[in-house]
Automatic annotation (TrEMBL):
Receptor for thyrotropin-releasing hormone (TRH). Upon ligand binding, this G-protein-coupled receptor triggers activation of the phosphatidylinositol (IP3)-calcium-protein kinase C (PKC) pathway. This is Thyrotropin-releasing hormone receptor. Keywords: G-protein coupled receptor, Membrane, Receptor, Transducer, Transmembrane, Transmembrane helix. Pfam families: 7tm_1. It comes from Oedothorax gibbosus.
């Protein structure tokens, strides 16, 4: 079968393209048919193996975290509550992205097989999991800062019930924020030579209109949390490592012990460390 170039003025007769009776003018103004393209076998095998390992380890690991914390009463702590939220978010991202990526290795080009609802739901779940993960880490960081730098206040602020309420708030906010993705995607037809009725998952509006949304994602869930992490962990490091905590008793005038001036510093730092252990137990 001869190739038909729609970008040229070449005359394409009905005997050289799918057996259809179409005129040269119709073909020239019709859709651009692409050459079929597939991933190489080596690319498929390597991609499937490595992404399959990531998927299995990630899914099993996150499920185990949730089960262990849920069934072990002694692990019902504020810190572990945030870790469970993070595990659920990571699990959601894995489920919504990795299987589709592996399946794409064996499909034609950017073909989409899950229909318009699948396009909307999978994209929504990916953004929801990523954003909820970022917010969970942020809440966890703030909780660690309070527990270490303000141990007395932490007894009343860093509680399991408060942590659960914060996690509920995180997920509600993430769901509302990401809900537009249920309407910002669609499936559109793609045309490959020799194939019909193929679709791809794409944007429903002009791509330029998504720039503001992407910039909001970048600022709210990446830039601002990163700045907050740096500040809070810097304060935590100052509390834990700038105070002089003697790992072995010093000797002064032949006697073993701390001097009076350093004892207050050491007691304060040790109290902070004890509070960290207390809230993690």
């Amino acid at each position: 079968m001869a190739d038909c170039d729609f970008n040229s003025t070449m005359d394409c007769s009905n005997s050289t393209f799918f057996g259809n009776s179409t005129t040269n003018e119709t073909l020239l103004t019709g859709p651009d048919y692409l050459d079929p393209s597939y991933y190489s076998m080596n690319y498929r095998i390597i991609g499937t193996v490595f992404q399959g390992i990531v998927f299995l380890v990630g899914v099993l690991g996150n499920i185990m975290v949730v089960i262990v914390v849920w069934q072990t009463r002694s692990m019902h702590t504020p810190t572990n509550c945030y870790l469970v939220s993070l595990s659920i978010a990571d699990f959601m991202v894995l489920i919504a992205s990795v299987p589709n990526e592996i399946l794409a290795y064996y499909l034609l080009g950017d073909e989409w097989v899950w229909g318009p609802w699948g396009c909307a739901i999978f994209i929504f779940l990916q953004f929801l999991g990523i954003n909820a993960s970022s917010l969970s880490i942020t809440a966890f960081t703030v909780e660690r800062y309070i527990a270490i730098c303000h141990p007395m206040k932490a007894q009343f602020i860093c509680t399991v019930q408060r942590a659960k309420k914060i996690i509920y708030g995180v997920w509600i906010f993430a769901c509302i924020y990401c809900s537009p993705w249920l309407f910002l995607t669609k499936t559109s037809p793609i045309y490959y030579k020799g194939y019909e009725n193929l679709e791809t998952c794409t944007f429903s509006l002009s791509r330029d209109l998504y720039l503001g949304y992407f910039m909001a994602d970048l600022v709210l869930f990446y830039v601002l949390p990163l700045i907050l992490y740096c500040v809070l962990y810097g304060l935590i490091a100052r509390i834990l490592f700038t105070n002089d905590i003697a790992k072995t008793p010093g000797k002064k005038n032949g006697n073993t012990g701390f001097n009076t001036g350093d004892s207050k510093k050491n007691n304060s730092s040790m109290n902070a460390r004890v509070q960290v252990r207390f809230f993690d137990s």
